Amino acid sequence: MNNSQAYNQWAEQYDSNNNKTRDLEAIALRSVLAEREFEHILEIGCGTGKNSVWLKDRCTSLTGLDFSEEMLAKAKSKIPDAHVDFRWADIRQPWAVPDGHFDLVTFSLVLEHIEDIEFIFAEVRRVLRPGGTVYLGEFHPFKQYLGSKARFEMENGDVFVLECFNHHTSDFFAAAKKQGFRCADLQEWTDNDDEHGGIPRVLTMVFV
Ligand SMILES: C[S@@+](CC[C@H](N)C(=O)[O-])C[C@H]1O[C@@H](n2cnc3c(N)ncnc32)[C@H](O)[C@@H]1O
Question: Which domains does the chain carry?
Fold first, then answer.
């Protein structure tokens, strides 16, 4: 099963199962982007719309891309707003969106599934307006070093582990820097009830 098929299976329970990373990243995004308003937002790997429900009230248009039809179906049923457009796309291929259009591009828990992040940041550079902002909120590399990966329990009770790639914090920095971005903010987010000595769960970075 590839990642697209896996997310199609995961979609039914994605919003309801116990998932500390999903919940913490939602808090992080809302905190990092608080008080900001945007015109056109591009949300990469929008999934079931966990963050779209918040982002849509802070812009005049929101475009969400994802390669899981079932995750997208959940997002569409949750958010019927006319200014929101959810589209199927594999973001490892050139994105079918206009050049220089967006003033915010977001990534939430998606880049761990992408091997070539240099290609991703090149696409961000192409589609972002001059002066635009990039937000990423990713599973913290420290957790990855300990062997944690995105996983879910299938209907038959087996646990399926998705294909993931480890990116160091410096890899994100370097891929963004190569496109002329500057890191304007970096935060590490830890569970309130952390029982592992405070190892951060989520990394957020903002590039401008
Ligand atoms: C862990 S979910 C995160 C969803 C949402 N951003 C959130 O924070 O809840 C990862 C999402 O990335 C999508 N995804 C992974 N690889 C992708 C790819 N190559 N192209 C498009 N979407 C991808 C998956 O389908 C899934 O919806």
Answer: 3-207 (3.40.50.150)
